[in-house]
Amino acid sequence: MARLSQSSNPRSIVILTSGTDWGTRAAGQKRSSGAESPIPKRQPAKIKALQQTIAVAGSAIKRKRWHEARYALSRARALTNALPTNAAVQEREKLSALRKTYAARNTPAAKNAKQAKATPAGRGGSKRPTPKKATAKKAAQKPKPTPVRELGDRFIDRAALGYAPADKAKDS
Question: Looking at the record, which segments are called Disordered (predicted)?
Fold first, then answer.
C-alpha cells in the first residue's frame, strides 16, 4: 500500500507495509563490521587510528566483550589493508597476537591458562599447602567406630502391654 506523505514535497511516496515483510527486511540487514567505518586519508592518521583500534581491541578482549573485540579487529584489518606492508610493523605484530587470543577464547587451552593464572604466585604453582608436623598426634587419635546395632531375637512382653494375662505370658 502506498500513500502520499504529509510533507510539502508532492512527489515523495511512503510505502506502508502490514509487517509481513519484516523477516526479509531484517535478513537484508547485516551486522556492521568495523570495515565500514571511515578510514583517514593520510598515512600518519591511519597509523594513529590503527594504534587506537588495537588498544580498543586489547581492552575488549581483556574484558571478554567479544562483539566489541570482533568489531575492533575488523576495523584494524581494514586499516592495515589501507597501509603499505612495510609501515606499522609493530602494530601488525600486536594485531596478530590479539587475533590469536580472540580466536582461542573458548578453547580448552584458554581455560587452562585462566586456571593457571588464578593460582596465587606465592605458592609456586602447588595447589595444596605443606603438611604440618603433627603426624604423631594424628596417629594417637583413632576415629570412633560406628556402633553396630545388634538387633538379635526380640521378645515383646505382651502382658506388660496389656494384651494377655501375666501368668500366660510367663509360660510361653
Answer: 1-46, 101-154
